Amino acid sequence: MSVNNKTSINNDAQDFGEEKRSIAREDAHQPAPDLQLVKSKVASAPQNGIALALGGGVARGWAHIGVLRALDEADIPISMIAGTSIGAVVGGCYLAGKLNELEEFARSITRRNILRYIDFTLGKSGFIAGNRLAERLDEELGNIRIEDLSKRFVAVATEIDTGHEVWLENGLLAPAIRASYALPGVFHPVTHFGKHLVDGALVNPVPVSACRGFEAKSVVAVNLDRETFTRSSVIRSSSIDFGDGLAEKHDMENLPSTWLPFNFGNNTNNKKQKLGISGVMIEAFNIIQNRIVRSRLAGDPPDVTIRPKLSGIGLTDFHLAEQSIEIGYKQTQYELAILEDSGFLEAIG
Asked: In 87-188, which ranges are E strands?
């Protein structure tokens, strides 16, 4: 190397050293960093493991318990959970260390005793005030705050006044969960942080975007939508065999009906039941939710989707918790076996 080149390098090194000393002098006059802000940035940094997006599905949501059991059994690390509606209930209780209590509660529900948790009301913004369920949640979750959970948690709700999607990521856990499952027309809206909030499934039924918003590396979505909806398309009246229609009309008129928000255990495989006003409302909500799910996931797909086969379990079959949990557990085991063969599980460790 020539003498001129050595001299040039030495000069550059001196300039660089002087620049570092100048920056250090400037930093010395800067105020100390906001430690809370630094802590928040560290907490929001991507972590190893999977981010779970637990979708809504009313009674079918008990399957989330089976999903979490299978993930724990396989030692799959979870970096965060975002939940909508029943997904927020199960996800929040899991991170609060209350999954055992929730599962015990779910398995204890029968066709009759569910009435003790439902306080009907008329002339207000929903059939059910929700106070009894709220008391049960408060009893189990107490004063647990979202920011104190072992992992990041987001409960998705909808602001009924504006239609905004609301991510509840701090504050008390119990009211955030209640807001996320407040099905419009069935439960009263929940006032939280000064906003009137209802079920998050109105805007984001499977909250993959909430996980992506916190820069999750790998997102696993648990989608509880009924499989039959995704196979539906457009039906032309010219392709329908109506027959005489008289016998069907007579049968429908003689079917039992109910105005109640839930059918209290009338399995979808049992004798048909004429839909009351609430039954129509819930099924319509289910169809809308399905269309939203398909649209949202097409634009922001998860890395993995777990879809328990729950077609035999209706939206209001809360007494079928045992079957739902088992279906969620087995479907997750099946998906994990595939992911292990593909090398996905090794990559998230």
From this structure: 126-128, 152-159, 165-168, 185-187
How does residue 107 score in pLDDT terms, banded at 50, 70 and 90?
very high
85 is catalytic: yes
Q: pLDDT per residue over 66-81, tens digit each?
A: 999 999 999 999 999 9
Share of the chain above pLDDT 90, in %: 48
Residue 132, helix vs strand vs coil: helix
Residue 29 DSSP symbol: T
Active-site residue among 79, 199, 278, 300?
Answer: 199
Given pLDDT bands bounded at 50, 70 and 90, which one contains residue 25?
Answer: very low
Placement of tokens 């089976």 in the chain: 66
Going by DSSP bridges, is the β-strand pair 126-128/152-159 parallel, antiparallel, or unpaired? unpaired
Q: Which of 85, 180, 218, 324 is catalytic?
A: 85
What is the rounded average pLDDT of the residues 268-281?
A: 57
Q: Give the DSSP letter string of 164-211.
A: -EEEE-SSBHHHHHHHHT--BEEEPPEEETTEEEEEGGGT-SS-HHHH
Q: Cα(324)–Cα(314) distance, rounded to whole angstroms?
A: 10
22 catalytically annotated: no
Q: Report the length, in residues, of the chain.
A: 349
Smallest CA-to-CA distance from 169 within 152, 157, 181, 182 is with 152
Q: Model-level pTM greater than 0.90?
A: no
